[in-house]
Structure formats: C-alpha cells, structure tokens
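Weekly sync, protein design subgroup
Attendees: M.S., D.O., the rotation student, P.L. (late)

Item 1: inverse folding check
M.S. brought a backbone from last month's batch and wanted to see whether the design step gives back something sensible before we order anything. D.O. pointed out we never logged the input encoding, so this time it goes straight into the notes. Structure tokens as presented (253 positions):
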C-alpha cells in the first residue's frame, strides 16, 4: 500500500508515518507534503498513492480546495483537530475521518476499512450483493454502519441498531443484542442517514429506533418517559416541545 501524507506540522507528519508503519510494516510512505500547492505538484507525477492521509487545515488553505486543483483518484482519510470538519470531509473521496491527536486504534480502523474496500474491488468476481449490503445506501437511507470490532471492520445492519447516543464527546450505537460501538458521525449526520420513519430524535442525547420502545409513560413537566426493551445508559425522555411530534410519529407506524 502506497501512502501519501499531507500535513503541515512536521512532528505530526513524522508521528503519523511511524504509527502507520507500526500498524502495517508493508506500507510505503511515498512522501510527505505540507500544502495544497505541494500536493498538487506531487500528484502530477507517478507513482500515484493508493491512499492519502490529508490534514484539513493547511498553511495555504483548506485541503478541500485540493479537489478543485487536482484529480484525486484514490481514497482519502481526513485528519483534523475539529470534529465538526467530519461532515464536509465525507462529501469527497473520504473513507474515514480521524481526530488529532492520533490514536493508533483510529488509524488501524481507517487502514482496515481501506483494505476491506480494496478487497471488494480487486476480487476477480466481486460479490456485488455483499458490497451493496455492506456499504451502500438503499433508497437514500443507510442500510449498514461500519464499526471497528476487535481489529476488524464489521457492518452493522441499521435495522439491528436500537439506539444512537452521545456519551461525553463520543457517539455510540447500541444494537438490540446489547453490543456497543463507537461511531465516527454526529447524531445530526446520523439522523439524515437513517431518516425519520424508523428513528426519532428523542432529545439532544438519543436517537432511537421505534422497535426499542416497550411503552411510553407521562413524565414530569409534561415530558414523556420511554421504557426501552433493552437497558439504555441513561433514562430516555422526550421533551414537552417534542411530545406531540413523537406521539404522531408513533401513531403513523
């Protein structure tokens, strides 16, 4: 695997290079560039990288401008210190988004995801149905979410997900069989991915599957208290302002 690193902080670039080689010694670091201009020049000549680790904020601008200046034919892993950069990153060639400072498990996740996608496309007779089920969006809605599990990339069917929720600064998904995984999307992004037919944003913390609900009880201050079929990390309530919409959503099922 040939990797190009685009990072304007030399120490960060060197640390990233060393960590990638620690994860997979077979990786070849083709080069390290520190600007949009330098990256455009690098990509103009062979060999082409198989994967680019691309810092979002570079000295001469945002790296999204790279896609206006050059043809980027390979997948990209975006890197940033700001979680809010994730959404625009996924409007390009991105297959993963990694927060800085880097954690080895996040980088391993990104590399494993790249290898999994590469294996699909390099197969002599690719299983298009499996590819569609694992990675595609059906009818504009996401049918699976890819998660890291024991060093592997695993697709979790959306219908198997009981809830998405925020804990601290992380977003997790919890399945109906009580497996919990970190996921690299905000709840706002996930809402758009799953639609509002099967899932409802109960409050700032929880996005819940209709099938999670065992019953609904009146709560304090005209809130609604949801009794889930499986245990949630915290009580799930629907605010007074959302109560009417929530009941209409349930009634429309």
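Designed sequence read out in the meeting:
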């Amino acid at each position: 695997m040939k990797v190009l690193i685009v990072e304007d902080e030399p120490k960060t670039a060197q640390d990233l290079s060393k960590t990638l080689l620690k994860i997979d010694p077979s990786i070849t670091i083709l080069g390290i560039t520190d600007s949009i201009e330098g990256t455009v020049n690098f990509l103009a000549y062979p060999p082409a990288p198989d994967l680019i680790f691309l810092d979002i904020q570079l000295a001469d601008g945002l790296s999204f401008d790279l896609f206006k200046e050059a043809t980027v034919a390979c997948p990209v892993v975006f890197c940033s210190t700001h979680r809010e950069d994730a959404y625009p990153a996924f409007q390009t060639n991105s297959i993963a988004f990694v927060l800085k400072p880097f954690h080895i498990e996040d980088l391993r996740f990104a590399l494993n995801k790249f290898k999994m996608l590469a294996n699909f496309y390099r197969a002599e007779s690719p299983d298009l149905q499996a590819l569609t089920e694992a990675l595609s969006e059906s009818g504009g809605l996401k049918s699976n979410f890819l998660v890291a599990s024991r060093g592997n990339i695993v697709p979790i069917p959306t219908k198997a997900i009981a809830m998405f929720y925020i804990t601290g600064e992380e977003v997790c998904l919890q399945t109906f069989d009580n497996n919990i995984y970190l996921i690299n999307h905000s709840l706002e992004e996930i809402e758009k991915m799953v639609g509002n037919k099967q899932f409802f944003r109960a409050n700032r913390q929880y996005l819940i599957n209709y099938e999670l609900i065992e019953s609904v009880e009146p709560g304090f201050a005209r809130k609604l208290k949801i009794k889930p079929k499986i245990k949630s990390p915290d009580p799930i309530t629907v605010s007074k302002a959302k109560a009417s919409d929530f009941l209409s959503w349930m009634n429309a099922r």
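Discussion: The helical segments are 10-23, 36-43, 66-69, 86-89, 104-122, 128-135, 187-194, 240-251. The longest strand covers residues 161-167.
Action: P.L. to compare against the previous round before Friday.
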